[in-house]
Amino acid sequence: MEVLQKNKKIVIIRTPFVHPVKHVSSITAVPDIGTAYINGTLISHGYDSFIIDGTGEGINRRTQIKGTDLAIGGIPADEIIAKIPEDVDYIGVQSMHSNRWIYDSYILKKIFEKFPGKKVFMGGEHVSACYDKILRQFPQLAGCVVGEGEESVLELLEAFDHELPLDGIAGIAFSKEGKVIATPRRRRKAVLTDLPRPSWKGVPIHKYLENHCGVNSLSRKSIPMVATRGCPYSCTFCTVPNMWESKWYARPAEDVVDEIRSYVEKYGANHIDFVDLTLVINKKWMHRFCDLLIDAKLDVTWAIPIGTRTENIDLDLLKKMKKSGLSRVLYSAESGDEKTLDRIKKSLDIEHFNLIVKQTSSIGIVVKIALIFGFPGQTLREVWSSFLLVNKLAWLGARDIVCLSFIPYPKTELFDQLKIDYDYSSLDNNIRLNNDIPNMKSWSEHFGDGALKFFVLFFTLYFYALQGALRPHRMLGGFYRVFIKRKPLTNFESIIFNLLNKKMNNLGVEDIGLT
Known about the structure:
The chain contains 17 helices and 19 strands. By secondary structure, it is of the alpha/beta class. Helix 13 runs parallel beside helix 15 and helix 16 packs parallel to helix 17.
């Protein structure tokens, strides 16, 4: 596509996150890589584009939504709207997580009130899953981008520029004559060599760095990155198979290291959080990346905080990852029971998983484990298997754990099987976070909501108590890091650190018309 010469002005809005007022989390705020990629793509094609970061502009600000137990993290809608220039040509809005729609839709309403003649488009995971409901609620939306957005957004904006029909653009949805039109799915970009770099223009990136905002990286100046895209697996609780396709592609390792170098030189970053869906798939690629990073001598650490598979990991690779700066990794077990794993199509060799946990811990990399409870069909015996796994992992050296409730996310296989119909704008029939303990719902026929909450709390506290018994020096180290050094390391330490620093306080109340 040729570079445009019109320099049309575009604003991309990253909305604030939404969480329960009394929510306890190890994460404060993290720069958004998705909007940065779209922004970088638009800038590279001649658009005057920048991001209004509703989260980053209000780091540590909390505003309760009147009449609810929910709060937003970031600046409220009126402040976001005030930052949109009057001469803007197009407005893009990201809606990433379905639980945010209750506030994202309010922001959208305010945009249409102030800019009734402007073309507004949307993208993000919630949009990709629920574009039909969104377009029925807001038929005046100029278009919704479904799936990976870079190529679809460019074609959509070119159609806006030249007043062309939208029917021939793959990977979008729009309203036409009162009907929702969804075009054929766009083939994912398989070659990532020429992918434009993320642009943080408009994002208060230095504010993130100064506040040490990251995914469990509160002691570092962290920036998120994506080295690969996709996941080749087909777990029934995951959005990837239906929304993004079960395919995995990697950027050139040289390009990834060069991007890290640019963040070190430009921003003074010293840590990278790789937020890939599944980073470690290709051993050869990972060896190449580690070799290049070691040779670059950038003095950075890096982590895999979202989760990765263990099938393609061995001790030799782990040693090289450690040498290149890997400080922590999240291994997603989901369950310790073979029947549960088979039911959710989680291809996991538990014996190999345990071996990798042991080897990773033994060379000094912090290991965090993710478990999920409340799956349809999950029995108490299967929960017991997970309890046995928790004991095993603590003995093997895992240092951290996150216990979550199963949430049937839209556009997943289990969501379709359960025939769920959320009203994302309501208070009663809405989706919640998977770590929102008071509102957890069990989808198992064998135990209820109360049991689910007990499992999540008990397994978490039991794991840390077991840590204290097996390795008391870790507890003493955690005390030193939180109270003396003020540089937490684990999920639990980060939660305590946030609570002590009052980072979860909500300030003020906003009425968005829900009551």
